[in-house]
């Protein structure tokens, strides 16, 4: 049996880091996807298991979690292949997508059910993400699992709330781009531990402001909120000086930008979600930094089955 699963990447529009402290975050799935292909074979005649898969501690952990969950249903003879368009180390949810993809592939292959149980997938993938990041909020796995625009809040480890936008985001607000400043030297886990603001209430206020602005199609308030959120993250030490310089250049050209996810304070800070109505001006504003602009289609579909071959 062959199962092919694809999972989107994500960006956090607002609320990163504060979400670990029980404040809301707004995230969106993006149109960069990771694909997991799981092929299972008939049982081997000789005793023991045999399998081939992409190397890596995170992959092995995800497989281990599924082996523990499935028990006797876990296939002993399989091949696992992973291909990804999501930039690694850019704070775009590549590890979350990997966990979700592997979890989904094994669930589909062992159940024969093409209807996905998104809540179960998210629950199991969260265990994988904890191995990677220590104390994640769960917003990454939730966003790439469910897709769309996600309002997320973690009250307690046992109580998390998630709401997908039930309204269509206006085309007039589709001026988002991505700029990858490079892989941070710090891990997301390190950045989460470093985040010690005097108050996280300001993060909640700006997250609500941005969410309301998207709903109301209020572009001016949206841009103001993104800029304010960026400043809060800079004050909290989540943004390097070099990345702050890039953001200032974008602002001077008429746009706004901020980090998304963990960030980085030593040098690179991962991907920057950018809102700009003039692509040419945006490109000119970052030309001296040698960076490229990627169009960002936000709110794309979450985890999905691409193919099942019995």
Automatic annotation (TrEMBL):
- Database matches in Pfam families: GHMP_kinases_N
> What is the protein's given name?
GHMP kinase N-terminal domain-containing protein
Question: From what organism does this protein derive?
Answer: Candidatus Roizmanbacteria bacterium CG22_combo_CG10-13_8_21_14_all_38_20
Pathway annotation from the record:
Isoprenoid biosynthesis; isopentenyl diphosphate biosynthesis via mevalonate pathway; isopentenyl diphosphate from (R)-mevalonate: step 1/3
Please cite one Gene Ontology biological process associated with this protein.
isopentenyl diphosphate biosynthetic process, mevalonate pathway
Which GO molecular function terms does the record list? ATP binding; mevalonate kinase activity
Q: Where is the GHMP kinase N-terminal domain?
A: 58-148
Sorted alphabetically, which keywords does the UniProt record give? Answer: ATP-binding, Cytoplasm, Kinase, Lipid biosynthesis, Lipid metabolism, Magnesium, Nucleotide-binding, Transferase
Q: What InterPro entries does this protein's entry cite?
A: GHMP_kinase_C_sf (IPR036554), GHMP_kinase_N_dom (IPR006204), Mev_gal_kin (IPR006205), Ribosomal_Su5_D2-typ_SF (IPR020568), Ribsml_uS5_D2-typ_fold_subgr (IPR014721)
Task: Name a GO CC annotation attached to this entry.
Answer: cytosol
Q: Which domain of life is it from?
A: Bacteria
